[in-house]
Structure formats: C-alpha cells, structure tokens
Amino acid sequence: MRIDESTELTLSSIGQVELGLGTIYFDSQATTGVGALQVSTTHGLLRTTGTQFEAASSPEALRVRIREGSVAIQRGPQDPELTGAAGEQVLLESGGGAELTPFPAVDPEWSWVIALADAPRIDGRPLIELLDWIVRETGHELRFADPAVELRARTITMRGDLGNVSPMEALDVALATTDLDHVVQDDGVVLIRMR
Fold it and tell me: Nearest to residue 182, comparing CAs of 167, 165, 195?
C-alpha cells in the first residue's frame, strides 16, 4: 500500500483499512498471492482481490481508479454493489450520484504512485524480472520485437544495483549495458528490440 500526503488512514486489521480523507494505492501483487483488501470510507465499502487500484476520499466524493483487476463498491448494507474494472474510474458523490468512466493505466495522474516505487534488487537476476516490474509499476504493456529478443531478455543476467531511480529510469540504466533497446509507443506499449 502507498499512502499519498495529507491522508488519514487507520489499519483496522490484516486486510482491512479505514480511509478517512486522502488517497491510497494498493497493489495486491497477484503473482505473489497477496490477498484481498477491504477499504471502509464514509461513502461505502470497497472490496478487492488481485488488483491494483487507487482510492481517494473527500467529504464530497469517493473516487476509485482501477489499474488491474476489479473493485466492488457498496454504499450501504442494502445497496447493490457497483463494480469497476481495469481501465475504469468510479466516482461516488456524497449526494448519491455515481459515474463510471474510462481511466487508462498509463494516465499521468498515476505519477504519484510511480514516484513511490522502490527499485528491486537486480544483482544476479534475469533482465525479464526487471522488465516485468517496470511495466507493473507504470501500467505499460510489455512486448518484444520478436521471439529472439524475448529469449535474449530472459537470458541476460543483471549485475549491480539500480539505486534510487524511477521505473523508466531503471529501464534506461538496465538496457544501457546490453544489446537491447526500447521504445514507448503511443498505445502504452514498451517495445523491447535489438539495438
């Protein structure tokens, strides 16, 4: 979980938090089997599993942006659930209105989340692990120019330490000493190719 500045948050128990005011981001890291999360707010209850999402609560509204997976939101015990899926934003207004709109995984509004990402240890690890981490943190999609490039990314073993760099800076640093290069396409794809 990442917590934005000026956020009021109470950890109720394992897997349950109360969000007063402010913004949180949660990544269940579904590949590692980390479980679900319930977020209580004055606007309703959020239930998630296997997802990446941001929840922002204010006196006026609850905004939920889903990057991966889905989030079920229930205003009250008798109200039906509203579900938002990957690439969507759900806005619940305090007056009762609800709006579901598209929200891309690579929108600049995710920048605060990306800025809080901790670079993984790479020494002795295959390049493909770093590439997977980069696209998970940034919301991009990873593609290879051809199967030979993908095989190359799986066989390169990295050395050293990335230090305190952003995910996209980590990509530049890691590829600088290889025969691989990348381009970020307009559709959000990070294409790995030979130099």
Answer: 195
